[in-house]
Amino acid sequence: MKHIPVLLDSVLDALGDISGRRIVDCTFGAGGYSRAFLSRGATVVAFDRDPNVVTDAEAVRAEYGDRFTFVPRAFSHIADLDEKFDAVVFDLGISSMQIDTPERGFSFRANAPLSMRMSDDGPTAAQLIEQLSVSDLANILRDYGDVNRAGILARAMKDARPQTTFALRDLIRNPRDVAPVFQALRIAVNDEMGEVKRALAAVPDLLVAGGKCICVTFHSLEDRLVKNIMRRWTAIPGDPRLPVVKAAQFVPIKTVTPSMSEVKNNPRSRSAHMRGVIKSY
Ligand SMILES: C[S@@+](CC[C@H](N)C(=O)[O-])C[C@H]1O[C@@H](n2cnc3c(N)ncnc32)[C@H](O)[C@@H]1O
Questions:
Q1: Is the beta carbon of 71 within 6 A of some atom in ligand 1?
Q2: What CATH code would you report for 120-189?
Q3: 95 in ligand 1 pocket by Cβ < 6 Å?
Q4: Residue whose CB lies within 8 A of the most ligand 1 atoms, among 27, 115, 186, 215, for a mutation test
Q5: C-alpha span between 76 and 70 (Å, rounded)
Q6: Distance between alpha carbon 180 and the CA centroid of its chain, in Å?
Q7: What CATH code would you report for 8-97+193-279?
Q8: I want to staple 32 with a disulfide (CB 3.0 to 4.6 A). Which of 5, 157, 233, 260 is the partner?
Q9: pTM over 0.85
Q10: Mean pLDDT over residues 80-95, rounded?
Q11: How far is the CA of 96 from the centre of ligand 1 (A)?
C-alpha cells in the first residue's frame, strides 16, 4: 500500500510560507512531505535509514535537482549537518510500505522471518531475543509495550527462540498483548527512542532564529518523549525567585491531532499528534 502522508496539511500550516526556506525532512519515507515542501519552493535535505526508499529519493532528485539532497542514514546524523535550517521535521514511526511488506517482519498478520529492522544494520528481532537476558527482554516488553507478566513471556521467548512472526505470535497467550509485544520489539530493534533523543538534542543548534521543529508522533511513548523535550525547551530557564527571568528559547506551536475525516480516509493516522516549537532567538 502506498504511504498516505499523515497530518501533512497541519504541518504545512505550521511551517507557513516556505518558499526559499531550507528544511530537513528527517523521515523521507515515500517522500510525501519532501515533495510537498519542494513543490512550495523549499530546499530539502531528507534522511531515511531504509534502503528501500532510495529509488523514490532518486526520483525526487531527478524532478527537483539541487534543491533536494537525500542522506541514506539514521536521522540522529542530523547532528553532523554544519549549516543552519529554517525547519526540522519528523514524521516518526514506520511507513505503510514497511508494515505492508511481510518479509520485513513488522506485521503479526503475515508469517515471515522475525526481522523488524528499518535499515540493514544491527540485530534483527530474532537475534535480539537470543542476545538479551531474560530481565532485559522483560524490561523492553514492559517499558515499550506495557505488557503484563513480561518476565514470564520473556522467559518463554528466550526458551523458544522464535525465528518467525507467527512463532512469536503463537507464544503470546493473551491476544491483546500481540500488538504491544511486536511494537516493543520494533522500538528496541530500531532504537527508536534513542534516535529521537539524539536527533532532538541536535535541533536547537541547527535552527536559525525563527526556525521551527515539527514532530508527528504515533504512539504514546514517543509522544511523551517529544512532549517532555519540547516542554523543557519552552520552559523559562533560571531561578524562578530571581526578578529578571530570561525568555525561553522556544515557543510552542499548538498541538494538532487528525480530523475525523483524515482518520476515516487513513485509519493509520488515528493515533497521530503533531507537536512543534519555534526558536525565538
Ligand atoms: C511515517 S514514515 C514517513 C513518511 C513520509 N513523511 C511521507 O510522507 O512519505 C517514517 C519513515 O521514517 C524512517 N525512519 C524512522 N526512524 C528513522 C531514523 N531513526 N532514521 C532515519 N529514518 C527513520 C522510516 O524508515 C520510514 O521510512
A1: no
A2: 1.10.150.170
A3: yes
A4: 27
A5: 14
A6: 17
A7: 3.40.50.150
A8: 5
A9: yes
A10: 96
A11: 10
